[in-house]
Structures are given as structure tokens and as C-alpha cells.
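Lab channel / #folding
Pinned by the channel admin:
"Please post every new chain as: sequence first, then the C-alpha cells as a reply. Keep commentary short and put observations after the output so the thread stays searchable."

First post following the new format, from NK:
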Amino acid sequence: YPNRTQQNQLEQMFGNDRFVWNQMLAMMNERYQNNKALPFLSKFKLNYLLKPLKKEYPFLKTSDSSSLQIVNEFLTQSWKNFFQDKTGQIGKPRFHSRKYLK
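Reply from TO:
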């Protein structure tokens, strides 16, 4: 079981993952609303945007970079599912909150 410091680090990391998800999702939603013909960004392009995001928000540097890259991969996959869904059952990706439980 993790001790108290490790629990704090995990909570910080999960919070940073949620923050990156919401920031990237807001950017992609705005991009989609402005021009629906533009292709969505790949996970590599989203990973490229992590560096300026870390400069703007220094608390993201405490998080492991691979966890932030996985968040971008999941976001890209959710957008792919949204565009490839022919049944209309899968909606656009949603913002994550602290209260949301999986």
C-alpha cells in the first residue's frame, strides 16, 4: 500500500492528467467548432503541445510525462470513436471532473 507521500503524488498525477485532458479537449472542441473539415490532431501532435503547456503551467512538471502522453492517446482514440461511429450512439468526448467516478 502506498504511504502518505506516495498517495499525494498519485493524487497530483491524476489531477494533472485530468487537467491535460480538459485543456486538450477544450482546444480540440474549439478547433472542431471553427472548422469541421479540419482533421483531428493525432496523438503525436498533441504530445508536441505538451511542452508549451508545461511551460505555461509549471505544476505539470511534477507529473510523469508518459502518463500525460497516455492521456493524449486516450483523447485521440475517443475522437476517432466519435468520428467512426455510424450508429450515433457515441458522442463527443466529455470533460472530466473530480467528482466523476469510473
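NK: The chain has a mean pLDDT of 88.
TO: also worth noting, The chain has one domain: 4-82.
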